[in-house]
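Quick one:
INPUT:
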Protein backbone atom coordinates (compact mmCIF):
# COMPACT_ATOMS: atom_id res chain seq x y z
CA UNK A 1 0.00 0.00 0.00
CA UNK A 2 1.22 3.48 -0.86
CA UNK A 3 2.19 5.22 2.39
CA UNK A 4 0.72 8.61 1.48
CA UNK A 5 -2.58 7.00 0.55
CA UNK A 6 -2.69 5.20 3.90
CA UNK A 7 -2.23 8.48 5.77
CA UNK A 8 -5.00 10.09 3.75
CA UNK A 9 -7.40 7.30 4.61
CA UNK A 10 -6.64 7.56 8.31
CA UNK A 11 -7.10 11.30 8.69
CA UNK A 12 -9.89 11.89 6.19
CA UNK A 13 -12.27 8.91 6.20
CA UNK A 14 -15.08 10.87 4.52
CA UNK A 15 -13.12 12.16 1.54
CA UNK A 16 -15.22 11.57 -1.57
CA UNK A 17 -18.31 10.70 0.44
CA UNK A 18 -21.17 12.69 1.96
CA UNK A 19 -20.71 13.12 5.70
CA UNK A 20 -23.96 12.33 7.57
CA UNK A 21 -25.16 15.57 9.17
CA UNK A 22 -26.36 16.01 12.74
CA UNK A 23 -29.84 17.55 13.22
CA UNK A 24 -30.16 21.32 13.27
CA UNK A 25 -30.69 21.35 17.06
CA UNK A 26 -27.16 19.97 17.39
CA UNK A 27 -25.64 21.87 14.48
CA UNK A 28 -22.51 22.72 16.45
CA UNK A 29 -21.55 19.05 16.06
CA UNK A 30 -21.38 19.57 12.30
CA UNK A 31 -18.67 22.15 12.88
CA UNK A 32 -16.36 19.60 14.53
CA UNK A 33 -14.00 18.13 11.90
CA UNK A 34 -15.49 14.80 10.90
CA UNK A 35 -12.04 13.22 10.62
CA UNK A 36 -11.47 13.83 14.36
CA UNK A 37 -13.51 10.84 15.47
CA UNK A 38 -12.78 11.02 19.18
CA UNK A 39 -13.58 14.73 19.35
CA UNK A 40 -16.90 14.23 17.59
CA UNK A 41 -17.82 11.35 19.92
CA UNK A 42 -16.88 13.44 22.97
CA UNK A 43 -18.96 16.39 21.74
CA UNK A 44 -21.97 14.20 20.98
CA UNK A 45 -21.73 12.64 24.42
CA UNK A 46 -21.68 16.05 26.09
CA UNK A 47 -24.69 17.12 24.03
CA UNK A 48 -26.58 14.01 25.17
CA UNK A 49 -25.68 14.54 28.83
CA UNK A 50 -26.85 18.15 28.68
CA UNK A 51 -30.14 17.10 27.10
CA UNK A 52 -30.63 14.41 29.76
CA UNK A 53 -30.16 16.99 32.52
CA UNK A 54 -32.67 19.26 30.78
CA UNK A 55 -35.12 16.36 30.53
CA UNK A 56 -34.94 16.00 34.32
CA UNK A 57 -35.47 19.77 34.60
CA UNK A 58 -38.54 19.61 32.34
CA UNK A 59 -39.97 16.77 34.41
CA UNK A 60 -39.33 18.54 37.71
CA UNK A 61 -41.10 21.69 36.53
CA UNK A 62 -43.98 19.67 35.09
CA UNK A 63 -44.37 17.94 38.45
CA UNK A 64 -44.48 21.26 40.28
CA UNK A 65 -46.98 22.76 37.83
CA UNK A 66 -49.24 19.71 37.88
CA UNK A 67 -50.54 20.59 41.35
CA UNK A 68 -52.69 23.33 39.78
CA UNK A 69 -55.13 22.26 37.02
CA UNK A 70 -54.84 25.75 35.54
CA UNK A 71 -51.30 24.86 34.47
CA UNK A 72 -52.43 21.94 32.29
CA UNK A 73 -51.14 23.46 29.05
CA UNK A 74 -47.78 24.34 30.60
CA UNK A 75 -47.45 20.81 31.94
CA UNK A 76 -48.18 19.39 28.47
CA UNK A 77 -45.56 21.72 27.01
CA UNK A 78 -42.93 20.55 29.48
CA UNK A 79 -43.74 16.88 28.85
CA UNK A 80 -43.51 17.49 25.11
CA UNK A 81 -40.19 19.28 25.58
CA UNK A 82 -38.80 16.27 27.43
CA UNK A 83 -40.11 13.94 24.71
CA UNK A 84 -38.51 16.07 22.01
CA UNK A 85 -35.18 16.03 23.83
CA UNK A 86 -35.24 12.22 23.96
CA UNK A 87 -35.86 12.10 20.20
CA UNK A 88 -33.06 14.62 19.63
CA UNK A 89 -30.56 12.48 21.54
CA UNK A 90 -31.67 9.44 19.57
CA UNK A 91 -31.09 11.29 16.28
CA UNK A 92 -27.64 12.48 17.34
CA UNK A 93 -26.51 9.01 18.35
CA UNK A 94 -27.86 7.49 15.13
CA UNK A 95 -25.89 9.98 13.04
CA UNK A 96 -22.83 9.38 15.21
CA UNK A 97 -23.01 5.64 14.54
CA UNK A 98 -23.72 6.21 10.87
CA UNK A 99 -20.44 8.10 10.75
CA UNK A 100 -18.47 5.75 13.00
CA UNK A 101 -20.27 2.37 13.13
CA UNK A 102 -17.41 0.62 14.89
CA UNK A 103 -16.63 3.24 17.52
CA UNK A 104 -16.92 1.35 20.81
CA UNK A 105 -17.65 4.40 22.94
CA UNK A 106 -20.43 5.55 20.61
CA UNK A 107 -21.92 2.05 20.63
CA UNK A 108 -21.74 1.95 24.43
CA UNK A 109 -23.34 5.37 24.88
CA UNK A 110 -26.19 4.57 22.51
CA UNK A 111 -26.73 1.30 24.35
CA UNK A 112 -26.98 3.22 27.64
CA UNK A 113 -29.50 5.61 26.13
CA UNK A 114 -31.66 2.83 24.71
CA UNK A 115 -31.54 0.84 27.93
CA UNK A 116 -32.18 3.69 30.37
CA UNK A 117 -34.35 6.13 28.40
CA UNK A 118 -36.03 4.09 25.70
CA UNK A 119 -36.69 1.03 27.85
CA UNK A 120 -35.17 -1.06 25.07
CA UNK A 121 -33.08 -3.51 27.09
CA UNK A 122 -32.59 -5.98 24.27
CA UNK A 123 -30.97 -3.48 21.92
CA UNK A 124 -29.13 -1.78 24.75
CA UNK A 125 -27.41 -5.08 25.55
CA UNK A 126 -26.82 -5.70 21.85
CA UNK A 127 -24.97 -2.40 21.45
CA UNK A 128 -22.86 -3.08 24.56
CA UNK A 129 -21.85 -6.42 23.13
CA UNK A 130 -20.97 -4.74 19.83
CA UNK A 131 -18.86 -2.25 21.77
CA UNK A 132 -16.97 -5.10 23.43
CA UNK A 133 -16.47 -6.80 20.07
CA UNK A 134 -15.01 -3.63 18.55
CA UNK A 135 -12.83 -2.70 21.53
CA UNK A 136 -12.32 -5.47 24.11
CA UNK A 137 -10.22 -3.09 26.22
CA UNK A 138 -13.00 -0.54 26.81
CA UNK A 139 -14.26 -1.04 30.36
CA UNK A 140 -17.59 0.83 30.15
CA UNK A 141 -19.69 -1.78 28.31
CA UNK A 142 -18.49 -4.55 30.63
CA UNK A 143 -19.75 -2.53 33.60
CA UNK A 144 -23.09 -1.96 31.87
CA UNK A 145 -23.43 -5.64 31.06
CA UNK A 146 -22.58 -6.39 34.69
CA UNK A 147 -25.46 -4.18 35.82
CA UNK A 148 -27.85 -5.80 33.35
CA UNK A 149 -26.99 -9.38 34.20
CA UNK A 150 -26.97 -8.73 37.95
CA UNK A 151 -30.40 -7.11 37.88
CA UNK A 152 -31.78 -9.97 35.80
CA UNK A 153 -30.46 -12.59 38.23
CA UNK A 154 -27.71 -13.92 35.94
CA UNK A 155 -25.07 -13.57 38.63
CA UNK A 156 -22.29 -15.52 36.90
CA UNK A 157 -22.39 -13.18 33.90
CA UNK A 158 -22.75 -10.19 36.20
CA UNK A 159 -19.65 -11.13 38.19
CA UNK A 160 -17.61 -11.87 35.07
CA UNK A 161 -18.43 -8.52 33.47
CA UNK A 162 -17.90 -6.45 36.61
CA UNK A 163 -14.55 -8.12 37.22
CA UNK A 164 -13.51 -7.48 33.62
CA UNK A 165 -14.44 -3.80 33.93
CA UNK A 166 -12.37 -3.48 37.12
CA UNK A 167 -9.46 -5.34 35.55
CA UNK A 168 -9.44 -2.85 32.67
CA UNK A 169 -10.02 0.27 34.78
CA UNK A 170 -9.08 -0.41 38.41
CA UNK A 171 -9.23 3.28 39.35
CA UNK A 172 -12.92 3.70 38.49
CA UNK A 173 -14.86 3.89 41.79
CA UNK A 174 -18.24 3.28 40.12
CA UNK A 175 -17.21 -0.17 38.92
CA UNK A 176 -16.14 -1.22 42.42
CA UNK A 177 -19.27 0.33 43.91
CA UNK A 178 -21.46 -1.70 41.53
CA UNK A 179 -19.70 -4.98 42.25
CA UNK A 180 -19.88 -4.28 45.98
CA UNK A 181 -23.64 -3.84 45.64
CA UNK A 182 -23.89 -7.23 43.99
CA UNK A 183 -21.95 -8.89 46.82
CA UNK A 184 -23.87 -7.14 49.58
CA UNK A 185 -27.41 -7.06 48.15
CA UNK A 186 -27.41 -10.64 46.81
CA UNK A 187 -25.09 -12.28 49.31
CA UNK A 188 -26.74 -15.75 49.39
CA UNK A 189 -26.91 -16.00 45.58
CA UNK A 190 -23.32 -14.84 45.11
CA UNK A 191 -22.17 -17.25 47.82
CA UNK A 192 -23.89 -20.09 45.99
CA UNK A 193 -22.40 -19.02 42.65
CA UNK A 194 -18.84 -18.69 43.98
CA UNK A 195 -19.13 -21.57 46.45
CA UNK A 196 -18.11 -19.25 49.28
CA UNK A 197 -19.73 -18.81 52.66
CA UNK A 198 -21.76 -15.64 53.15
CA UNK A 199 -19.22 -14.16 55.55
CA UNK A 200 -16.54 -14.28 52.84
CA UNK A 201 -18.89 -12.65 50.32
CA UNK A 202 -19.68 -9.90 52.83
CA UNK A 203 -16.02 -9.23 53.57
CA UNK A 204 -15.20 -9.07 49.84
CA UNK A 205 -18.10 -6.68 49.30
CA UNK A 206 -16.97 -4.44 52.14
CA UNK A 207 -13.43 -4.39 50.77
CA UNK A 208 -14.75 -3.27 47.38
CA UNK A 209 -17.06 -0.69 48.98
CA UNK A 210 -14.16 0.79 50.94
CA UNK A 211 -11.96 0.80 47.84
CA UNK A 212 -14.63 2.74 45.95
CA UNK A 213 -14.89 5.26 48.78
CA UNK A 214 -11.09 5.59 48.96
CA UNK A 215 -10.88 6.35 45.25
CA UNK A 216 -13.25 9.32 45.55
CA UNK A 217 -13.18 10.71 49.10
CA UNK A 218 -15.20 13.81 48.17
CA UNK A 219 -18.16 11.76 46.88
CA UNK A 220 -20.76 11.72 49.66
CA UNK A 221 -22.78 8.91 48.09
CA UNK A 222 -19.79 6.55 48.08
CA UNK A 223 -18.85 7.46 51.66
CA UNK A 224 -22.42 7.06 52.91
CA UNK A 225 -22.80 3.76 51.10
CA UNK A 226 -19.65 2.31 52.65
CA UNK A 227 -20.70 3.42 56.15
CA UNK A 228 -24.22 2.04 55.68
CA UNK A 229 -22.92 -1.31 54.45
CA UNK A 230 -21.64 -2.14 57.93
CA UNK A 231 -25.23 -2.99 58.87
CA UNK A 232 -25.24 -5.90 56.39
CA UNK A 233 -23.11 -7.68 59.00
CA UNK A 234 -26.30 -8.25 61.03
CA UNK A 235 -27.72 -10.38 58.24
CA UNK A 236 -24.61 -12.45 57.63
CA UNK A 237 -23.71 -12.75 61.35
CA UNK A 238 -20.25 -11.22 61.05
CA UNK A 239 -18.80 -9.40 64.06
CA UNK A 240 -17.31 -6.00 63.34
CA UNK A 241 -15.46 -3.30 65.19
CA UNK A 242 -18.10 -0.56 65.17
CA UNK A 243 -15.39 2.04 65.73
CA UNK A 244 -14.60 1.42 62.04
CA UNK A 245 -18.20 2.24 61.15
CA UNK A 246 -18.00 5.41 63.25
CA UNK A 247 -14.86 6.40 61.34
CA UNK A 248 -16.68 5.80 58.06
CA UNK A 249 -19.47 8.16 59.12
CA UNK A 250 -16.90 10.82 60.07
CA UNK A 251 -15.39 10.53 56.62
CA UNK A 252 -18.85 10.82 55.07
CA UNK A 253 -19.35 14.00 57.07
CA UNK A 254 -16.23 15.42 55.46
CA UNK A 255 -17.87 14.92 52.05
CA UNK A 256 -21.32 16.19 53.09
CA UNK A 257 -22.80 18.91 50.90
CA UNK A 258 -25.52 20.27 53.19
CA UNK A 259 -26.74 20.27 56.78
CA UNK A 260 -29.16 17.42 56.16
CA UNK A 261 -26.26 15.15 55.27
CA UNK A 262 -24.16 16.46 58.17
CA UNK A 263 -27.03 15.73 60.57
CA UNK A 264 -27.41 12.23 59.16
CA UNK A 265 -23.71 11.46 59.66
CA UNK A 266 -23.76 12.64 63.30
CA UNK A 267 -26.86 10.53 63.97
CA UNK A 268 -25.36 7.40 62.45
CA UNK A 269 -21.94 7.87 63.99
CA UNK A 270 -23.78 7.91 67.32
CA UNK A 271 -25.51 4.65 66.44
CA UNK A 272 -22.15 3.09 65.59
CA UNK A 273 -20.65 4.20 68.93
CA UNK A 274 -23.65 2.77 70.79
CA UNK A 275 -22.98 -0.56 69.11
CA UNK A 276 -19.29 -0.42 70.03
CA UNK A 277 -20.43 0.34 72.81
CA UNK A 278 -19.17 3.79 73.79
CA UNK A 279 -22.16 5.82 74.92
CA UNK A 280 -20.05 8.82 75.87
CA UNK A 281 -18.93 9.30 72.26
CA UNK A 282 -22.47 8.55 71.10
CA UNK A 283 -23.85 11.28 73.35
CA UNK A 284 -21.37 13.81 71.97
CA UNK A 285 -22.44 12.95 68.40
CA UNK A 286 -26.12 13.23 69.22
CA UNK A 287 -25.65 16.63 70.82
CA UNK A 288 -24.01 17.79 67.58
CA UNK A 289 -26.93 16.37 65.60
CA UNK A 290 -29.42 18.22 67.78
CA UNK A 291 -27.60 21.50 67.20
CA UNK A 292 -28.55 21.10 63.53
CA UNK A 293 -32.09 19.77 64.00
CA UNK A 294 -33.25 20.66 67.51
CA UNK A 295 -35.90 18.40 69.02
CA UNK A 296 -35.46 15.73 66.34
CA UNK A 297 -37.41 12.77 67.66
CA UNK A 298 -34.94 10.05 66.65
CA UNK A 299 -31.87 11.90 67.94
CA UNK A 300 -33.66 12.76 71.20
CA UNK A 301 -34.70 9.15 71.73
CA UNK A 302 -31.19 7.85 71.03
CA UNK A 303 -29.70 10.45 73.38
CA UNK A 304 -31.96 9.27 76.19
CA UNK A 305 -30.96 5.69 75.48
CA UNK A 306 -27.25 6.52 75.41
CA UNK A 307 -27.45 8.39 78.70
CA UNK A 308 -29.24 5.43 80.30
CA UNK A 309 -26.55 3.01 79.11
CA UNK A 310 -28.63 1.42 76.35
CA UNK A 311 -27.60 0.33 72.88
CA UNK A 312 -28.80 1.45 69.45
CA UNK A 313 -31.08 -0.80 67.48
CA UNK A 314 -30.40 1.28 64.38
CA UNK A 315 -32.49 -0.78 62.05
CA UNK A 316 -35.57 -0.20 64.25
CA UNK A 317 -35.26 3.60 64.26
Amino acid sequence: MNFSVAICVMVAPFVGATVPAFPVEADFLNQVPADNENKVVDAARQFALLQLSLIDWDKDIAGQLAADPANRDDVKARVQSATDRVSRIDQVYKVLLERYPKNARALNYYGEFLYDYRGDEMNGVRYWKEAVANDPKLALPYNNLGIHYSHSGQFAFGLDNYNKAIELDPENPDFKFNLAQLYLAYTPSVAQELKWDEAKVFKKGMKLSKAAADLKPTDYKLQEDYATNFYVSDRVKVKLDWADAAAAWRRARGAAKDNTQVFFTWLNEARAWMRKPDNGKAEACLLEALKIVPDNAVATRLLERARSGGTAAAEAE
